[in-house]
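Prompt: Have a read of the protein record below and flag anything odd:
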Amino acid sequence: MTSFKYYVGASVDGFIADGSSDTHWFATFAKQPGVKAHFEKFFDSIGAVVIGGKTYADIAREVSEGTMPWMFGDRPVWVFTHHELPTLPGIDLTFIRGEIGFWSQDIARSASAGDVWIAGGADLAGGFIQANALDELLVVRVPVVLGTGTSIFGRSVRVELSAMSVQDLGDDTVVTRYSVG
């Protein structure tokens, strides 16, 4: 059965973006061997990706400018948005509006035998919590304090989590895997 998983990097004080809404601070940590290997193993299990419109617009801009490669390979990418956004040639994109619960079955089917990665943003991940559609949260916690910024869920949500595992990735970095609900 397909699971919806939110895999995200965060500071020890729970922020995924700094006070300027910038996530580039995490790039150094993402290159660490333990973090990179863990993410690659996770990504191998992913059959489809869901992202919000702002996250997609930022990625599409950087891909178009040549400052970063398309990170989702040939997996279908579902973009929740309220705006018209540019497409990228040769990429399997579906732009959607509406309730998460309405689309979740179609998204799961597109993942085939894989899982669905809720890649961000934080507000979209919070929406999946509110729709009772998120199965797992994986937080890569890195040794930095940002002090302010975007929280893991980007909106006020309350949900019970059960720790499934904690893994040391080296370099003072750990990933905690939680069951949601």
